Amino acid sequence: MSNNSVLNIKPLGFPWQTSDPFLFCAYHNDTFPAGNEQLGPAASLAGRSIGQDFNPNQEWRMYHGQTVPGFPAHPHVGFETVTIVTKGLVDHADSLGAAGRFGNGDVQWMTAGKGVQHSEMFPLLNRDGGNQLELFQIWLNLPRASKKVEPHFAMLWSDQVPHYQAEDAQGNAISVKIISGRLGDLEAPVVSPNSWAADPENQVNIWTIELAPGAEWTIPAGDPALKRDLHYYRGDQLQVDGQAVRSQHTIQLKAGEATTLINGSEPSFMLFLQGRPIDEPVVQHGPFVGNSQGDIQQAFRNYQQDQFGGWPWSRADQTHGPDRGRFAKYADGKVVEK
């Protein structure tokens, strides 16, 4: 078997490097201890760089949080965040007045557009044992024509995510969750109307893939003009069109050719990203993304002028209490309880 669909293989870093139309993917995997009354860790924080705790050698991190792990209020401009939470919970709040608690398979899709502030905290609700968190936050770029759209917050709940399940000829399980795009007859709902992913011509696919030991599965061929990356983040070894790849690597693929995966002796987990390139200049300064340095300067001026609507919450690290279930409160006041 030839490795004709493999373009390049490179180690995963932090964040994961991606291809246009994606900007990058931040992967978080934390084994938090039991929580305390403030929904933070019931453990000493001594020796940590509180407010800048990103030490990859730790089992868990506080990130920019000081009491609760996570990312207190901060601005975004000119792109979208797609946050897939496979384990644990995230508390969302934003400058539109929207809020939510989501996780355990849910997906949040937020279009920053012309500017929004939001916080994303990781409440440790279990006080009797550990709190596991695993999430992917994918930064998806917006084209110039959509850089200044109104901000938008949406949820794709776990029971709305299409789930492809199959077995290979040997009975080994294959599982693909389709956050965006389609696979065969399964198609994810469009939740962000101004997204690059909203136009089916752009064929933006965001999938999580799990292969049982020994499983064989082929990613179908697509339009050759698309970009494809397969992020192999957990497992032992995978054959990608006959080429052995260890976990913690990104495999860049030719989109116009099918790719056959044959798994090794352990379950393997991957994130698959595909899309038509926007193919415009990208200038990024932290959480601000534009097409020129002038765009970034204007974004700073706008933020300094009105803070993108201000912050209507009592805390920058807003959480939603120890007893609240999964929910979303939208900017128009509508509340969905899960």
UniProtKB/TrEMBL annotation:
Signal peptide: none annotated. Residues 207-309 form the Pirin C-terminal domain. InterPro entries: Pirin, Pirin_C_dom, Pirin_N_dom, RmlC-like_jellyroll, RmlC_Cupin_sf. It comes from the Bacteria. Residues 62-140 form the Pirin N-terminal domain. Pfam families: Pirin, Pirin_C. Belongs to the pirin family. This is Pirin.
